[in-house]
Structure to design on (1098 residues):
C-alpha cells in the first residue's frame, strides 16, 4: 500500500484538520449546555487542542509520533514531538460522528479480519482512506494486549515509519525484568534522538516527569472525591483524568486540567452536589467504556440516576509510588509502568480481580457493567473471573453487553438501553443493594 | 487408497483416546506426573528433565462444542485456547498434575487466569516470554527459565540437574532431527505420506513419553522408506497460520487432487526447526534456541515468521498456500493482509480461510478449496 | 379484586389473571401472527373469558416482555406500568417453586439465565440474544424444515438410534449442515437429525446457564422447555433435574401479575386505566 493516498470527497470531511474543527465545535456546544461541570468543557477543549496539534504538526515542522497505550508521553513532550495515540484518535473520530462503519469496511476489504480490535480496524481504514494523520515515527510497547503492538506495527508499515518497540515484561515486579524494562526505556529515548536528530534534554525530561508525578497524585485525589456519596463527577468530565494523565502526561495542560477538576469536585462535595439527581446506582466499568456511544453515560446519569464511580482503565494501580529518584527520570518512567493506567490488563487476572474488589468496596459500587468489545480477547477472557468475584465478594451483579467499541451500529442503542434498564431494576431489587443503602 | 502405516497406527493407538491416551494412563499408573503446556514458549526439555511428562494441550479430531467455555471467556476468545478451556471444563484434562502457561498471546495467558480461578491444579505457572529476539531477551528469558526450573524442582522434590537437562535436550534434539527426516520425504515430487498422516505423527509427539515417541518415529521412518509408497496428487499445498489439530480437516482438503506437503504451524515445521546447541550450558542453550533459534512467533517484533514461510514454501516446491486463521486469533489475523502481499510479491498463489477451531471444513470451505486447486491446475 | 400481567414476547403474547388470593384464574399464551394490538386484545379477551371476568374487574395491570418501541409507547400511553421480564420471570418461578435458585428462560428469540436470591429476586443474569442459534425460533424453523410440528419434535427425537451431531454453532451454517444430512445417500433419519439438533441446543443452553454458574434448584421456562428431549439432554449436562411448571410459557406474565398485586395493595396505588371495551 502506498504511504500517501489521495483523499476522496467521501472522506474529505474527516481529515485531521476537519476532525479538529468538529471537536472545537463540540466544545462550543458543551459551553451552551446548561448545568455542565466547567471541567467537562475544559476536558473537551483539551481533546480539541490535542487533535489540532496533530493536524498542524506538519505545518509546524514537528515530528508526529504514532503511539500505543501507556507510552510515556513525558518523553515526547520533552522533545517537542507531537503524539497521536491511536486509540484516542479513533475514539474522538467516533465521538464526533465519524463514519466508523465505512472505514471498517475499507479495512475488511483490504483483508484485515473483522473480528479484530476496533482500534486496529479504524486506523487501518483511515490509512486506506488517506485520512489518517501522517506520522514521522512510531513507538509502542507490548501492554496490554496482542492487538496494540500489531496495530501500531501496521501503521508504521503503511506509512513507512521508523519505529521503536518496547518489550514490556508480563509480570514486571522482579528486579531482572525491571532492569530489562529500564533498558527498553533507555533505548526508546535513544531511538527518539536518532529519529529526530535531537538530543534529549534531561533537565527538561526531569521537569516533565515531575509534572507527570504531580498529575498522578492529582488523579488519586480526584478518585477519592469521586468515591464520595453522592458522586460529584458528571458524565461530561468522567474521562478527563484518563485523557489528561495518559495523553498529556508531562505536559502542563494535564496538571492545569486536573487541578481545576479537583477543585471543582471538592466544591461539589462540600456543597453536597451529586451528578445524578437522585443518585440511584453507583457503577463501575470493569473493562472498557462505551466509546462507541459516550452519550450512554449521560443517559444512564440523567434517566437512570446511575453514576460512574470507577473506570477500570482510568486509574493508577495501588499506591502508584513511582517517583523513586527525581534525578533519575528514566528510572522513574520505567517504574511508572508498574502502576500505569490500564497496565493491570497485562498482569495476571488474579491481580485485576483483587484490585477490582478493593476499589469497588471503597467506592461503594452497586453494579458492574462490562462492555464486551467484540475484538478484545484480552478482556473477554477475564469476564467471568471479574463477574463471579464481584458477585460473590460484594453482591455486585454485572451486565455484560456485547458491542464494538467504536461502532455504534453493532448493537442498537435501544437494545442497550433496554438491557441496562432491566439490569438496574434487578440491582435495586437485590439484597446487597438494599443492605448497602441501609448502611449509608 | 494408501495402506495405513502400522507404526503410525501404533502411535495413534498409544495416544487414544484423546487426551488421556494409553501412554498417559500407563505413565500415571506408574506413579509419574504429567505437566500440560500450550504453545512453544515453554521448553518441554525443562519439564522432561524434571521427570514429568510434558503434554501439549490442544483439541483433536472431534469437533468441540464451545458453549461451556464461552460461559467463562465469552464468544470472542481465540478458538484454539477456548477449545482447550472447554475440555478442561469437561474434565478431560483432569489427569494433569499441573500446567505451565505463558504470555505468548492473550488467549494463552487468559487460560492461565481461568485455570487459577476455576480449575486450579497443584502446580500452575506462567512464563514471561519476551517479544523481541535479541541478546537482552535471551538473558531475561534465561533468568525466568531458571526461576521456572526452581519451581519445577520444588514440585519434583529434587533439584533438576544440568546433567538431566543435557540428556533431555539430547532426546528432544533427536526428535527434531527425526522430524526433519520425515519432512524431507515430503519434498519428493511424489511424497510417501499425506498431510493428514504427518499431522497425526506430529500430534503424537506431545502426547506420550518422548523416548517412546522417538523409537516409534525411527521405526515409522524405516517403514515409510521401505514401503515404496507414493501419493499421486496433482498439486502441492502448504498450510500456514494457526494450528489445525483436527485431521479430518486436513483429510477433507486432501480428498481433492492435492496433497499437503508442508506447513507453518506450531504442530508442524515451527516445532522442529533448528536445534538446541548442546555445546552450551543447558539452560543457556534452551534460552537461545527458544528465543533466537526457532521461527519466531507472530507476536515477536521484527520476527522472522514471513521469512520462514517463504523459505519453506520454496523448499517444498508448493503450488499454493492456504493461509488459515482461527477466528479471534489476533496475532495471526493481524498478519494476514501483510502475509498475502508478501506471498503475492514472490509469486506464491494463496487462498485465505477463516475457520472455527476444531471443526471439519464446512461445505463452503470445501467448495472454495476445490476452486483454489482447480485454479492452480489451470 | 383481580389483577393481570401481560407478557408480550417475540412470538407469543401471554396473559395471566390472579384473584384476590393470588390464585391463577386464567393463563393464556397466544400466537396468532397478528399485530401486537390485535394479539394483546385477543389474548386478554381469552383470559377474561377463562376467568369469567370483564375488563372492569381488573384493578391493576403490569406489562412486561417486549423491547419493541411501538408497544412500549402504547403501554405508556395507557398508563400501564412496566417491569422487566427478568424480574417478572423470576417472580413467576418463585411462585411455583419457592426453592428455586436459578431460572433458565429459553424463549423464542433469546435465552436468559438468572441466579436468584432466597426471596426469588434475581441476583445476577446473563443472556444470549445476538443470534438465533439455540432459540425457540430456531427450533421452530428447523421443525418446519423437517416437517415435524414443534410439539412433536421431542417425542420424534427420542426414536433416534444414532444421533447426527450438528457441528455448526451458527444458525445459518447449521441449516446448511442439516440440509446436507437430508440429502445424504442414504439420508440421515429424521429422528437422528432432530436428536443432533437437540443436543446442539442443549449445549448452547448449558453454556448460557453456566454464565451464571447454575448448579441446582433450577427452573426452566419458555417454549423450549416443552421439548422433553432438549430438557433431558440439558439435565444430563447440568447433572441435575430441572423444575418445569405445567405451562412454562406463562412465568413472565404471572410475575407481572404478582407485581400488579404488589402495586394494587399500596395505600397510594392508582389503578391502571383499564383498556376500553373492544380495544386492547
Amino acid at each position: 500500500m502506498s504511504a500517501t493516498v489521495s483523499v476522496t470527497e467521501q472522506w474529505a470531511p474527516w481529515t485531521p484538520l476537519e476532525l479538529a474543527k468538529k471537536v472545537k465545535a463540540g466544545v462550543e456546544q458543551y459551553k451552551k449546555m446548561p448545568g455542565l461541570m466547567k471541567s467537562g468543557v475544559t476536558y473537551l477543549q483539551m481533546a480539541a487542542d490535542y487533535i489540532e496539534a496533530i493536524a498542524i504538526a506538519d505545518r509546524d515542522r514537528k515530528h508526529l509520533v504514532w503511539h500505543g497505550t501507556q507510552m510515556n508521553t513525558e518523553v515526547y513532550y520533552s522533545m517537542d514531538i507531537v503524539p497521536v495515540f491511536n486509540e484516542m484518535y479513533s475514539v474522538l473520530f467516533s465521538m464526533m460522528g465519524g463514519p466508523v462503519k465505512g472505514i471498517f469496511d475499507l479495512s475488511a476489504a483490504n483483508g484485515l479480519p473483522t473480528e479484530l480490535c476496533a482500534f486496529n480496524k479504524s486506523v487501518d481504514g483511515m490509512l486506506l482512506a488517506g485520512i489518517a494523520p501522517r506520522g514521522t515515527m512510531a513507538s509502542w510497547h507490548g501492554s496490554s494486549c496482542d492487538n496494540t503492538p500489531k496495530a501500531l506495527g501496521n501503521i508504521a508499515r503503511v506509512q513507512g515509519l521508523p519505529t521503536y518497540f518496547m518489550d514490556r515484561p508480563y509480570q514486571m515486579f522482579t528486579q531482572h525484568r525491571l532492569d530489562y524494562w529500564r533498558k527498553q526505556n533507555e533505548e526508546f529515548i535513544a531511538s527518539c534522538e536518532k529519529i529526530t536528530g535531537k538530543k534529549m534534554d534531561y533537565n527538561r525530561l526531569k521537569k516533565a516527569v515531575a509534572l507527570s508525578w504531580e498529575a498522578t497524585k492529582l488523579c488519586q485525589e480526584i478518585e477519592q472525591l469521586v468515591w464520595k456519596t453522592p458522586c460529584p463527577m458528571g458524565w461530561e468530565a468522567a474521562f478527563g483524568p484518563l485523557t489528561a494523565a495518559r495523553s498529556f502526561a508531562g505536559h502542563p495542560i494535564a496538571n492545569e486540567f486536573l487541578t481545576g477538576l479537583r477543585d471543582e469536585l471538592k466544591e461539589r462535595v462540600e456543597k453536597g452536589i451529586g451528578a445524578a439527581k437522585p443518585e440511584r446506582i453507583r457503577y463501575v466499568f470493569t473493562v472498557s467504556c462505551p466509546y462507541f456511544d459516550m452519550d450512554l453515560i449521560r443517559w444512564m446519569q440523567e434517566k437512570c440516576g446511575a453514576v460512574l464511580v470507577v473506570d477500570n482503565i482510568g486509574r493508577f494501580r495501588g499506591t502508584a509510588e513511582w517517583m523513586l529518584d527525581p534525578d533519575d527520570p528514566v528510572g522513574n518512567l520505567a517504574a511508572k509502568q508498574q502502576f500505569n493506567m490500564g497496565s493491570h490488563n497485562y498482569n495476571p487476572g488474579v491481580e485485576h480481580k483483587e484490585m477490582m474488589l478493593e476499589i469497588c468496596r471503597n467506592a461503594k459500587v452497586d453494579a458492574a457493567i462490562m462492555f464486551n468489545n467484540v475484538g478484545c480477547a484480552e478482556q473477554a477472557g477475564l469476564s467471568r473471573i471479574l463477574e463471579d468475584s464481584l458477585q460473590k465478594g460484594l453482591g455486585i451483579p454485572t451486565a455484560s453487553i456485547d458491542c464494538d467499541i467504536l461502532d455504534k451500529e453493532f448493537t442498537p442503542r435501544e437494545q442497550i438501553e433496554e438491557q441496562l434498564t432491566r439490569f438496574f431494576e434487578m440491582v435495586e431489587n437485590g439484597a446487597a443493594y438494599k443492605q448497602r443503602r441501609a448502611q449509608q | 487408497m494408501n495402506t495405513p502405516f502400522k507404526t503410525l497406527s501404533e502411535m495413534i493407538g498409544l495416544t487414544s483416546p484423546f487426551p488421556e491416551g494409553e501412554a498417559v494412563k500407563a505413565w500415571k499408573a506408574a506413579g509419574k506426573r504429567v505437566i500440560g503446556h500450550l504453545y512453544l514458549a515453554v521448553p518441554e526439555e525443562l519439564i522432561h528433565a524434571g521427570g514429568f511428562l510434558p503434554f501439549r494441550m490442544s483439541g483433536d479430531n472431534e469437533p468441540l462444542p464451545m458453549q461451556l467455555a464461552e460461559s467463562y471467556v465469552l464468544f470472542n476468545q481465540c478458538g484454539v485456547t477456548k477449545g482447550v478451556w472447554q475440555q478442561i471444563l469437561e474434565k478431560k484434562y483432569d489427569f494433569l498434575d499441573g500446567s505451565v502457561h505463558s504470555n505468548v498471546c492473550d488467549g494463552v495467558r487468559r487460560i492461565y487466569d481461568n485455570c487459577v480461578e476455576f480449575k486450579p491444579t497443584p502446580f500452575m505457572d506462567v512464563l514471561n516470554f519476551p517479544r523481541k529476539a535479541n541478546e537482552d531477551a535471551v538473558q531475561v528469558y534465561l533468568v525466568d527459565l531458571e526461576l521456572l526450573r526452581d519451581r519445577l524442582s520444588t514440585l519434583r522434590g529434587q533439584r533438576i540437574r544440568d546433567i538431566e537437562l543435557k540428556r533431555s535436550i539430547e532426546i528432544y534434539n533427536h526428535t527434531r532431527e527425526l522430524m526433519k527426516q520425515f519432512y524431507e520425504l515430503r519434498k519428493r515430487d511424489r511424497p510417501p505420506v499425506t498431510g493428514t498422516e504427518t499431522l497425526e505423527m506430529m500430534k503424537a509427539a506431545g502426547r506420550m513419553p518422548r523416548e517412546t515417541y522417538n523409537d516409534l518415529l525411527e521405526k515409522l521412518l524405516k517403514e515409510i522408506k521401505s514401503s515404496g509408497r507414493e501419493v499421486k496428487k496433482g498439486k502441492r499445498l502448504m498450510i500456514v497460520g494457526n494450528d489445525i489439530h483436527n485431521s479430518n480437516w486436513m483429510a477433507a482438503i486432501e480428498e481433492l487432487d492435492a496433497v499437503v506437503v508442508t506447513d507453518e504451524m506450531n504442530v508442524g515445521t515451527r516445532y522442529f526447526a533448528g536445534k538446541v546447541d548442546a555445546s552450551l550450558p543447558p539452560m543457556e542453550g534452551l534460552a537461545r534456541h527458544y528465543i533466537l533459534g526457532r521461527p519466531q512467533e507472530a507476536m515477536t517484533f521484527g520476527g522472522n515468521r514471513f521469512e520462514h514461510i517463504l523459505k519453506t514454501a520454496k523448499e517444498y516446491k508448493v503450488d499454493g498456500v492456504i493461509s488459515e486463521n482461527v477466528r479471534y486469533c489476533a496475532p495471526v489475523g493481524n498478519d494476514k493482509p501483510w502475509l498475502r502481499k508478501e506471498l503475492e510479491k514472490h509469486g506464491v498463489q494463496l487462498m485465505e480461510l477463516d475457520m472455527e477451531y476444531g471443526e471439519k471444513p464446512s461445505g463452503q470451505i470445501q467448495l472454495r478449496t476445490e476452486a483454489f486447486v482447480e485454479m492452480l491446475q489451470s | 379484586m383481580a389483577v393481570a400481567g401481560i407478557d408480550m414476547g417475540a412470538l407469543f403474547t401471554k396473559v395471566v389473571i390472579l384473584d384476590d388470593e393470588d390464585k391463577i384464574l386464567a393463563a393464556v399464551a397466544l400466537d396468532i401472527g397478528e399485530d401486537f394490538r390485535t394479539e394483546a386484545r385477543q389474548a386478554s379477551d381469552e383470559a377474561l373469558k377463562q376467568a369469567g371476568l370483564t375488563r372492569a374487574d381488573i384493578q391493576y395491570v403490569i406489562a412486561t416482555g417486549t423491547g419493541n418501541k411501538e408497544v412500549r409507547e402504547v403501554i405508556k400511553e395507557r398508563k400501564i406500568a412496566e417491569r422487566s421480564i427478568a424480574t417478572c420471570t423470576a417472580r413467576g418461578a418463585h411462585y411455583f417453586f419457592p426453592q428455586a435458585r436459578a431460572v433458565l428462560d429459553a424463549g423464542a428469540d433469546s435465552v436468559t439465565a438468572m441466579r436468584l436470591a432466597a426471596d426469588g429476586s434475581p441476583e445476577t443474569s446473563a443472556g444470549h440474544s445476538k443470534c438465533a442459534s439455540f432459540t425457540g425460533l430456531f427450533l421452530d424453523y428447523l421443525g418446519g424444515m423437517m416437517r415435524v410440528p414443534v410439539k412433536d419434535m421431542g417425542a420424534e427425537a427420542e426414536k433416534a438410534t444414532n444421533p447426527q451431531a450438528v457441528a455448526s454453532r451458527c444458525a445459518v451454517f447449521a441449516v446448511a449442515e442439516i440440509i446436507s444430512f437430508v440429502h445424504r445417500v442414504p439420508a440421515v433419519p429424521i429422528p437422528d437429525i432432530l436428536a443432533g439438533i437437540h443436543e446442539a441446543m442443549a449445549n448452547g443452553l448449558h453454556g448460557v446457564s453456566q454464565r451464571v454458574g447454575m448448579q441446582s434448584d433450577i427452573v426452566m421456562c419458555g417454549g423450549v422447555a416443552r421439548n422433553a428431549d432438549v430438557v433431558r439432554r440439558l439435565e444430563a449436562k447440568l447433572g441435575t433435574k430441572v423444575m418445569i411448571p405445567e405451562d412454562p410459557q406463562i412465568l413472565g406474565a404471572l410475575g407481572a401479575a404478582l407485581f400488579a398485586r404488589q402495586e394494587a395493595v399500596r395505600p397510594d396505588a392508582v389503578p391502571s386505566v383499564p383498556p376500553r371495551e373492544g380495544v386492547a
